[in-house]
Specification:
This protein is an alpha+beta fold and about 600 residues long. About 50% of the residues lie in helices and about 15% in strands. It has helices at about 1-25, 30-40, 60-75, 75-85, 90-95, 105-115, 120, 130-150, 155-170, 175-190, 200-225, 235-250, 255-280, 285-310, 320-335, 350-360, 375-385, 400-410, 495-500; strands spanning about 395, 420, 430-435, 445-450, 460, 465-475, 480, 485-490, 505-510, 520-525, 530-540, 550-555, 565-575, 580-595. Strand 1, helix 18 and strand 2 form a beta-alpha-beta unit. Helix 5 packs antiparallel against helix 6 and helix 9 (about 155-170) runs parallel beside helix 11. This is Glycosyltransferase RgtA/B/C/D-like domain-containing protein. Keywords: Membrane, Transmembrane, Transmembrane helix.
């Protein structure tokens, strides 16, 4: 009866969490990483490794699944997040199955509940990233490894490779786990394989395990060579990896807790691995397998840092440690409590996960990007204000908001406004400022708070008018109709212009058959030795998905260093495609707030 009760409590919890994730997939504003994924890989339809932008942000499986939804249903966030969302039931199913070998019902329930309520982890099932997908497939791989150890069946081995391949396609940071599985199964086949399955198991191992691993390794090494394994820090596994999981999962930076969790994880994993060895590796459970992965990934991170100077994984890159730790700890408690019955009460520590989730429930932001959400409401408010103005309005903020703002330009399918990056010396020139209280510059003296959304993002409006003194204007209209890579629209060495210009105004008409149009307006200055001193971009694909003759008219603050000798504004036609551009006007102003 208790097992049935546990199953029903788990099922109810999973249903409630799934409903919560469905709502979050609709209400939570897009994050910077999601916007980067959208522009680099979804909108461009270029996500196949070696044939797209090289970056660790390319979660190939996520892009592969999202792209057809984008083409069919459009760029609404729900459709971009759907592949991860629909994998949560699979994750929950494996979370329950993997805990069924825990003998104590008292230990089994908190362990299974913790797996589906770890707050930082489950959020990724409502984001357009690869992490949610990878967690579901990782648990699937563990489940079939457990089955294969017992059965030595080629079918179970094949399912292992299917699930771990999908895991790595969604999240390359699990390559160490892939390597451990490869080594473990090789040893099992060598020393423990059943004779009647021997040949077919070796064929499956080579074709579906070894060969895919070689290709994945080559790709990972190429990324390392390009310096793309950049995320994280080199300050130590506990200080970087473990502490970051506490930071986002439990809102604490306590090194004491980080060390305690590390020691518990070490003791638990070593104990279960020792128990696995005592059974001569003929019998396993999910906890023993998770223990191997938990300890192996920790040691692998340390070795990679020591031997190849790879940073220790941090926050979202390290989040796969959470399900491994929960499984390891739950089975460890169950293992020890067979001798010391009262020890099973230590499983109460896992209750911290659902409690933390309840404490951090929200429908307005993600824990990894608390200060960078750009909501539809904030975007719509500014556009309503823009429609009331006869001149182009400037909105600015932290640079990590610009891609999310660009996503809304594309989603809204209207002629948007490029989001300007804050430069402290031009801060007062923006008509509106978008920011979170945690990183807002003090603006009360010059700006009024005019809007606040559910994400706690605020929009401020400048109190005083801005006096614009013209210092440059284009002599005549420019026209380009070609596939040239570069076209200058402003190129000046005029010292007076460079010293006084702090606002750029551009009005252009654009048409091209290419969708999206990968052309950028580059704003730059350089010194006498041609070193870049200032660099700003306005990607046209962040304004419109397609260009068929629309007019873009915007103003943008510029902050040219005093050492600048040359100031250039030009078009960069990155893909060298046919495009027709009419430059109606380019103006430079010196702006000053009216006292």
């Amino acid at each position: 009866m208790t097992q049935i009760l546990n199953r029903n409590i788990f099922a109810l919890t999973a249903i409630l969490v799934f409903i919560y994730l469905i709502i979050r997939s609709i209400t939570v504003p897009i994050s910077h990483d999601e916007a980067a994924t959208f522009f680099h890989y979804i909108q461009s339809n270029k996500f196949v490794p070696y044939y797209t932008l090289w970056d660790a942000n390319n979660h190939f499986l996520n892009s592969l699944l999202v792209y057809p939804l984008y083409k069919i249903f459009g760029s609404d966030l729900f459709w971009l997040r759907l592949p991860n969302l629909i994998l949560f039931p699979l994750y929950a199913l494996f979370a329950y199955k993997l805990t069924t070998e825990i003998k104590s019902n008292l230990v089994q329930l908190p362990t299974s509940i913790a797996l589906i309520t770890a707050p930082f982890l489950i959020e990724f099932f409502a984001q357009s990233r690869g992490y949610g997908l990878s967690f579901a497939f990782l648990l699937g791989a563990i489940y079939y490894i457990n089955a294969f150890i017992k059965s030595k069946s080629p079918r179970h081995q094949l399912l292992i490779w299917v699930f771990i391949a999908l895991t790595v396609m969604a999240n390359m940071s699990l390559m160490n786990t892939f390597l451990m599985i490869l080594g473990g199964i090789f040893l099992l086949l060598l020393f423990k394989g059943k004779k009647n399955f021997s040949r077919s198991n070796w064929v499956v191992f080579v074709m579906f395990g070894l060969i895919p691993f070689v290709f994945a390794t080559i790709y990972a090494l190429d990324m390392k060579e390009m310096g793309l394994l950049y995320y994280g820090l080199g300050d130590g596994f506990v200080k970087v990896t473990v502490k970051s999981l506490f930071r986002f999962g439990f809102d604490t930076e306590s090194m004491t807790l980080a060390w305690m969790a590390t020691i518990i994880g070490l003791i638990a994993s070593v104990s279960l691995i020792a128990a696995f060895a005592r059974k001569h590796f003929n019998f396993a459970n999910a906890g023993m397998i998770a223990a191997v992965f938990l300890l192996g990934n920790a040691l692998g991170s340390i070795l990679l840092n020591f031997m190849m100077d790879v940073n220790f994984p941090e926050d979202r890159i390290a989040i796969y440690f959470l399900p491994l730790f929960i499984l390891t700890f739950g089975y460890f408690v169950d293992h020890v409590s067979t001798k010391y019955r009262k020890f099973k009460w230590t499983v109460v520590l896992l209750v911290a996960f659902p409690i933390s989730m309840l404490a951090q429930l929200n429908l307005g932001y993600t824990l990894g990007w608390v200060i960078y959400p750009v909501s539809i409401d904030a975007y719509d408010y500014f556009n309503a204000e823009r429609e009331k103005s006869d001149t182009p309005l400037i909105i600015s903020g932290d640079r990590l908001l610009s891609m999310s703002w660009g996503y809304h330009n594309v989603r809204a399918d209207i002629m948007g406004v490029p989001f300007a990056e804050d430069w402290r010396d031009t801060f007062h020139l923006s008509d509106y400022i978008l920011c979170h209280p945690m990183n807002c510059v003090k603006t009360e003296a010059d700006y009024d708070l005019v809007f606040e959304d559910e994400s706690n993002m605020k929009i401020y409006k400048r109190k005083a008018d801005l006096n614009l003194t013209p210092i440059f204007e284009l002599d005549s209209t420019l026209y380009f109709n070609d596939d040239f890579e570069y076209h200058n629209i402003l190129d000046t060495y005029n010292d007076t212009v460079i010293r006084n210009a702090n606002i750029l105004e551009v009005e252009i008409k654009v048409a091209s058959p290419n969708i999206p149009l990968n052309t950028e307006i580059i704003i730059t200055s350089s010194n006498p030795t041609n070193n870049k001193l200032y660099y700003d971009i306005v990607p046209l694909k962040w304004i419109q998905n397609s260009w068929d003759g629309q007019t873009l008219h915007f103003r943008r603050p510029v902050s040219l260093p005093a050492e600048s000798e040359r100031f250039v504004v030009y078009f960069w036609n990155i893909d060298k495609v046919q495009q027709e551009i009419t430059v109606i006007n380019v103006r430079l102003y010196h702006g000053e707030v009216v006292e």
